[in-house]
Amino acid sequence: MKSLLTAVLVVVSFISSAQSSKINQYIFDQKNQHRWLNQYREFLTIPNVLGDSINMVRNANWIKDLMVKHGVKSQLLLSGKSGSAPVVYGEVKTPGATTTIAFYAHYDGQPVNPKQWAEGLAPFTPTLLTDRLDKEGKIISFPSDKDVINPQWRLYGRGSSDDKAGVFAIITAYESLIVSGLKPTVNIKFFFEGEEEAGSKYLSDIFKIHKDLLKADQWIICDGPRHVTGRKQVLFGVRGDVNIDLKVYGATRPLHSGNYGNWAPNPAMRLAQLLASMKDKNGMITIKGFYNDVTPLTEIEKKALSAIPPVDDILKKDLMLPQPDGDGKSMTELLTIPTLNINGIQSANVGAMAANVIPTEATAVIDLRLVVGNDVDRQVKKVMDHIRSEGYYIIDHEPTDEERMKYPLLAKVVKRGAGYNAQRTPMDLPLAQKAIKAVETTMDYDMVRVPSLGGSLPLYLYEQLLQTKPITIPIVNYDNNQHAENENVILQYLWEGIETMAALMRM
Amino acid sequence: MKSLLTAVLVVVSFISSAQSSKINQYIFDQKNQHRWLNQYREFLTIPNVLGDSINMVRNANWIKDLMVKHGVKSQLLLSGKSGSAPVVYGEVKTPGATTTIAFYAHYDGQPVNPKQWAEGLAPFTPTLLTDRLDKEGKIISFPSDKDVINPQWRLYGRGSSDDKAGVFAIITAYESLIVSGLKPTVNIKFFFEGEEEAGSKYLSDIFKIHKDLLKADQWIICDGPRHVTGRKQVLFGVRGDVNIDLKVYGATRPLHSGNYGNWAPNPAMRLAQLLASMKDKNGMITIKGFYNDVTPLTEIEKKALSAIPPVDDILKKDLMLPQPDGDGKSMTELLTIPTLNINGIQSANVGAMAANVIPTEATAVIDLRLVVGNDVDRQVKKVMDHIRSEGYYIIDHEPTDEERMKYPLLAKVVKRGAGYNAQRTPMDLPLAQKAIKAVETTMDYDMVRVPSLGGSLPLYLYEQLLQTKPITIPIVNYDNNQHAENENVILQYLWEGIETMAALMRM
User: Is B261 in contact with A454 (Cβ distance < 8 A)?
Assistant: First the structure.
């Protein structure tokens, strides 16, 4: 039996590598890569921040046109809610296939502050660099057809990694299969969202309206980065997420810091004191009960966790952080507990515009990441209870004169959107195993198996509304500046992402 | 003797009020006020932030032209330092006069962020309002010659109070004297600085170069606001001032708050913790030895302090601050001890541009006000020692990779300019008494006598370089948003300021 099994495995492996080489040839053909680079560059020039409705529709149509070009039956799905961006949906039925795989990516990006981008870069002017900006990467012209594309080049622009890369890789994987004469082995559904970065506010509406259309045996989410070691990885869950706007107040008008200094309370100082009270110096959260309702990891998850290659030393050097937060815990472990993070803080001005004033208000945006066991409202309540325990009266609006006079310490606390809880898929799910095997045909090492991403996606909606448990297979480099200025993707990761997605279409 | 003295006093008072009514007639003549309002409006349209050299010179020439128009011998004094704005100097010799009074004001303003100004207002588009913005003041057109100017109207614009008002009132007081047929009783020197808000960096150069030209028996500084009760006041000193830029660091690039949250230290949180460690919840400074080297008030100063009308209750209501800082001490008392104030704080973005990131750095600008006994360098050192005691390694430049890896807690601490110490003039100085009497001819109450302004001016330079002890007589309303957005002046204060300065020219 053993030799027979071996023989079967060899044949499977042989077939797989033959197919793989055919696809490989196509994907790593410089002629195709030149075309794709131009196409992707064009895609990244379309601004993709939710709220810019005209451009969001331009993005959606660009995606739809690309799918139609490759023969994919496509349509825009609308939530019917104002300010909502369309989902671009596509479908391919494969004769004889009994399994349907749905591929998810999103085309919207995080808000941008062009001023924060490095010189020569701009969010929606895709720019090619020889290497990472802080590793002496130089800006170069886009290659002509005769130039050789270096796979280590990085393309900078909003969405280049998060997550137009996912959209582009999925569609181009399908192109690659079709044009290179292979066929998918499964039915495929394409689902490209346009409001993920704004908390997927209307995704549930889309799921409810199009429940039947969106039925699939397995959803594969293509978002987030590959493992820090560069390895491909599969993730079985995500943290939940909710943002809070926090504002505290001083006098009703800005005051001369000399004429009022020592007497008029400074809201920037008050905010500093309030935020400082939420964490200790090791970065552990000191809010009462913050870590209490975390569901312990299962045995499989614990085992998987311990098998993940360690990243702390790599990251310490790469990010220049000799002493990370977390009280000595490993990064892998820290991603399985809830967070409280300051996204931004502002009061009056710094730099050349700074003036000798006592500001009128100070603002912070906080994000809470949640793990399985946490609940958005319960977690937000813990933060609010803490703010109250510091003596603040909480309001959800700008204070009235009466409120200012009645409550010396006023904090405006507003939850952004609804937020959402964490989600986890069992690590032994059969179709997930099949997907892993498919991806592993493109590699000579084992995929990294992660119980949960540190980041967030509203995957609980798939469980609740589509009764399915998704897995996440990301494709981009981890050092992509996702969510910030100078976002970028390494071209090699884009090409390998196409390869990964193509393998999944033949799982 | 008593009746003779009374008779003399009556005569003096009679002469004084006769002159006063002649001057009054001129100053409160609507025709003159229409002309002045247009002139002052034109003056305020010239941007006056140091660094904008072309406009600083335009301001200087505008002032010089106005003085020349009224027959004042004028010139620009230059420090010879690049980036420095000229001093506008003027001189009037009065036949028979034995006393020389020098009048100081400054024409530069604090930096502006036009975005922070209220709708309809802009720093350099002077705008007239019926009342204070937050008291339902409405924007109105500038009056035509036929309209009656309401003295309660407010003129909004950068410099409208601080301190183009001083420049304008001093020159216009001289105009009023001359045109209404009265004469100054003293020799007058006009001295209008252009870099006070930037710390009067080159004032000492001017003083050194023009030491003889600038000799005067009494310097009168026209800057800052009248007393909170609206009373005219005279100030015998100022606090010193120094600014510090403080920056702390996180990773070398912005990180996804999910993928790195709990592990990568957040510089905004670090800055919050560091700043919070500097003050207690009553706003008292907790830095070791911060209040130690304060010179106690003299008996005269203590007595004067206790005679100042209380302002706390007025300000609590006006500024909506039911519970001021200062551990129960009165505002008047709190202005006689040193401060530590956050001018501004920033890390990444808040509002619509906020993203789910862990920022790379967080910045604060701090200002320290100093009282007599404090020394700039000693006070800054206390702050730096405190930062070190919190575990930070202090640098004065952006960190190198080596420094980042060697010191987990890095703080960039940079003093802005040299800063300067406090200054105090004895409250029984004879010429000061004479000045007070002159101003009191324009009023039916006693001037408020204040040992020290809460704000700062580099008055120590007058002592050090000109061997003279200045006094400060301010003219504008206290609720003028000095140093911040929506700066404004009440027209009545401008007219009365002209009257005050005219009285001083006949002291």
Answer: yes
Best residue in B275, B331, B356, B402 for a mutation probing chain A (most A CBs within 10 Å):
B356
β-pair partners for A412: A247, A395
Among B258, B404, B485, beta carbon nearest to A369: B258
Pairwise CA distance, residues B22 & A153, whole Å = 81
Distance from CA of B117 to the nearest CA of A (A): 11
Fill in the DSSP letter of residue B185: S
Tell if the CB–CB gap between B257 and A363 is shorter than 8 Å. Answer: no
Alpha carbons B254 and B358: distance in angstroms, whole number: 6
Burial grade of A123 (CB within 10 A; 0-12, 13-18, 19 or more): buried
Quick one: closest CA in B to A259, which residue?
B454
- Distance from the Cα of B503 to chain A's closest Cα (Å) equals 26
Within 8 A of B273 by CB-CB distance, chain A residues are: 272, 275-276, 279, 281
Q: Residue A488 has what DSSP assignment? A: E
Sort B396 into a burial class: Cβ within 10 Å, 0-12 / 13-18 / 19+. Answer: exposed
User: Looking at residue B417, what is its pLDDT?
Assistant: 86
pLDDT tens digits, B22-68:
888 999 999 999 999 999 999 999 999 999 999 999 999 999 999 99
- Per CB-CB distance under 8 Å, the chain A contacts of B347 are 342, 344-346
The average confidence (pLDDT) of chain A is: 93
Of the candidates A73, A482, A204, A92, the residue with the CA atom closest to the CA atom of residue B355: A482
Three-state SS string over B441-473 comes to: CCCCCCCEEECCCCCECCCHHHHHHHCCCCEEC
Mean pLDDT of B127-152: 96
User: CA of B206: how far to CAs of B48, B76, B238, in Å?
Assistant: 20, 11, 21
A284 secondary structure, DSSP code = -
Give a three-class secondary structure readout of B398-439. Answer: CCCHHHHHHCCCEEEEEEEEEEECCEECCCCCHHHHHHHHHH
φ and ψ at residue A375, rounded to 5 degrees: -130, 135
Enumerate domains of chain B plus CATH numbers. Answer: 2-230+422-504 (3.40.630.10), 240-294+337-413 (3.30.70.360)
Say what the pTM is. 0.82
Kindly tell me the sign of the dihedral angle through the C-alpha atoms of A470, A472, A473, A476: positive
Considering only CB atoms, B265 lies closest to which of A324, A404, A455, namely A324
What is the ipTM for the molecules in this complex? Answer: 0.84
- Beta-carbon contacts below 8 Å between A and B: 365
Chain B's closest residue to A285, CA to CA, is B262
Mutate to test the interface with B, among A113, A245, A320, A423 (most CBs of B within 10 A): A320
Q: From the list A111, A238, A405, which residue is nearest B352 (CB)? A: A111
Provide the 8-state DSSP code for A408: S
The contacts of residue A52 (CB under 8 Å, 6+ apart) are none
- Do you know the residue count of chain B? 507
For residue A370, give the chain B residue with the closest CA. Answer: B258
Distance CA A438, CA A432 (A): 10
Flag if B348 and A345 touch (Cβ within 8 Å). Answer: yes
Instruction: At B81, list the tokens.
Output: 């330092």
Nearest CA in chain B to A323: B408
User: For residues A48 and A109, is the Cβ–Cβ distance under 8 A?
Assistant: yes
On whether the CB atoms of residues B264 and B251 are closer than 8 A, the answer is yes
| Strand ranges across the sheet with A448-450 | A73-77, A87-92, A187-193, A100-106, A218-221, A471-472, A233-235, A448-450
pLDDT at B17 (0 to 100): 54
Q: Is B273–A279 a contact, with Cβ atoms under 8 angstroms apart?
A: yes
Residue contact B264–A346, C-beta within 8 A: no
Residues B366 and B343: beta-carbon distance below 8 Å: yes
